[in-house]
Design a protein that fits this description.
- The protein is an alpha+beta fold.
- It has a six-stranded antiparallel sheet with strand order 1-2-3-4-6-5, with helices on one face.
- 36% of the residues lie in helices and 26% in strands.
- The two termini are 19 Å apart.
Length: 118
C-alpha cells in the first residue's frame, strides 16, 4: 500500500473519521478527536503510526522488522508500520485494530453511534 491508498482506506472506516495536518508534516486521522493513525509525510521511508494493544505490539515487533515502536509516541501503545515492507492485508488489519482500540476508549455515548464500515 502507498500513502494515498492508506488514506482512502482509513477514511472509509467511518464517515466521522477526520483528517488534518498536525505539526506541519504529520497527517493525522481521528475519530471523535482521538488519533488512531498518524502518517509522517517527511519520513525517509513511508510509515504510519497505529495504536496496538501492548501484548500484540510486542509479538509483532518480534516477528516483523518493519513494525517498531512509534517515533515520538507512547512506545507501549503505538507502533510504526513501514508499509512498503508489510503485506497490505496486515497493514489494513492493524489500521482497523487501531480504530477499534481508540473507539473502545471513547465515552459510551460516542461509541453507540460508531461502527466499522463493511
Amino acid at each position: 500500500m502507498n500513502i494515498e491508498e492508506i488514506r482512502t482506506y482509513v477514511l472509509s472506516l467511518h464517515h466521522e473519521v477526520t483528517e488534518d495536518l498536525f505539526a506541519g508534516d504529520w497527517l493525522s486521522f481521528r475519530i471523535h478527536g482521538k488519533w488512531f493513525v498518524l502518517i509522517w509525510l517527511e519520513s525517509p521511508e513511508p510509515r504510519i503510526a497505529v495504536n496496538i494493544q501492548p501484548d500484540t505490539a510486542r509479538e509483532l515487533r518480534e516477528r516483523f522488522d518493519a513494525i517498531r515502536p512509534a517515533y515520538h509516541m507512547n512506545k507501549e501503545h503505538w507502533s510504526d508500520l513501514f508499509i512498503e515492507r508489510l503485506d497490505d492485508g496486515l497493514v489494513r488489519q492493524l489500521i482497523r485494530q487501531s480504530y477499534v482500540n481508540i473507539v473502545g476508549k471513547l465515552p459510551k455515548k460516542a461509541r453507540e453511534n460508531l461502527s466499522l464500515a463493511d
